[in-house]
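User: I'm writing a short methods note and want a consistent example. For Dynein axonemal assembly factor 4, I'll paste the sequence; you return only the C-alpha cells, no commentary, since I'll be parsing the reply automatically.
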Amino acid sequence: MPLIVRDHTWTQNQNTVYISLPLKGVKTANVHVICTDEYLKVSFPPFLFEVFLFGPINEEKSEARIGNGVAVFTLQKRRDELWEQLFTNIDKDKQKQIREQAILKVQEKEAEQSKAKAARIQQEKKYALETMMKLENEERGRIQKMKDEECARATAELDFWRETQRKTAEENENQQKTRGTGTHDNQPVYQKTERVNAPPAVTLMHNTGDTTSGQRSRKQKPKDLPAPRSAGCIQISFTPRVFPTALRESRVPEEEEWLKKQAEARRAVDTDLAELDDLREEERNPDWLKEKGDKLFMAGNYQAAVNAYNLAIKLNRKIPALFSNRAACHLKLRNLHKAIEDSSQALELLKPAVAANAPARLKAHVRRGTAFCELELYVEGLQDYQAALEIDPHNAALRADTDKIREVIQGTT
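Assistant:
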C-alpha cells in the first residue's frame, strides 16, 4: 500500500490554483502524473498524492514543473471563483468512478499521441520520398539535356564535315576540267598547274631514291634503359598459435581454458542447429510448444516445461508469454536470477503498456517481484508489486502481499 503524502501546500486566486508537493528525495524520472478536469494523482513510489478537486479545471492549460525536490502544479480554473477548500468530499464509489475515468482518458490520450506520431512519421517518409523523386527527376532531366546538346553538336559537326567534303569534291572537279582544257590550248598553263599541284618535298626525295637519309633524319636515338632487377626470394615462417594474444607462460592455463570454452560454445551451436533440423512438423510450431510447456508445468514437471519453452524461444523470441512462463518455472526450480531475466525480457516485449497486455504485465511484475524478495532484495520487489497493484488496484491478495513487503522494509516484521 503506498504512503499517502499530506505535507503539501496550496494557494489560489480567482482563476488559478497553485499546489506545491515535496518529492521526498525521489528522482524526477520516477514521478508519474495523471490529471483530468476534476482529479489529480501524483505517484512517486512508495509515495502517493491524490486529490479530488473542489471545482473543475482546464487540464489543457494547466502545467506541472518538477525539479529541485519539489513538484509545482499550476491549475487553471474553468470558472473565475475562489474555492473553499482544495479537496471535495465524495463517497468511495464516486472516487472509484473518477479514477477509472481518469485512467481511461490517459490511455486514450496516449493512444492518440501514438497515432499522431505514427502519422507524422509516415508524412515525413512520404515527404522524403517525394523530395528524392523530385531530385532524381531533375538529375534525369539534366542528363537528358546534356545528351540532347551533345547529339545536336555531333550532328552539326557531321553536317559541316559533309559540306566541306562536297566543296572539296567540287573544287577537284573544277581543277580537273581546267587541267584538261590547258592540254589542248596552252602549254604554259599546264606547266603552271603542274607546279602548283606538285607533291611535297618528302615525296620528291622518295621518288629520287633518297629514302634512307630522309628516314634517318626523322628517327630518334633510343634512350638508355636501366637493367632489370635481379629476382629474390623472401623467407616467411608462420606460427602455429591460435590464441590472439602474445605468449606468456603465466597465461597459458587461462588461454587453454578460453579455447576449451570456445570449442564447447561452437559444439553447442551446432547441436542446437541439429536439434532444429530433427524436429517434427508440429514441434516447429512455437504455439504448440507453449501449450506443451503449460501442460508440463501444471503436471509439476518444471524442468521439462523449461525445455519446451527453450525450444519455442529458439524458434520465436518475440512471444512475451514464453519468457513469462519460463520465469514461473525458474521460480519453482529456485533459479531466481534466471526468473528475473526472463520476467524483464517479457516486460520489454510487452511495451507499450496498453489495456490488452495488462494481465500479462501483471504476471511478469509479480514473478519478478517474487524473485527479488526471495533474494532478499525487498525494495526492488516492492517496486514490482506496486507496479502490479497499479494495473489491478482491486486485487486484495496482491495488496496484502505488498503490505507485507512494506512491513519487512520498514522493520515492523
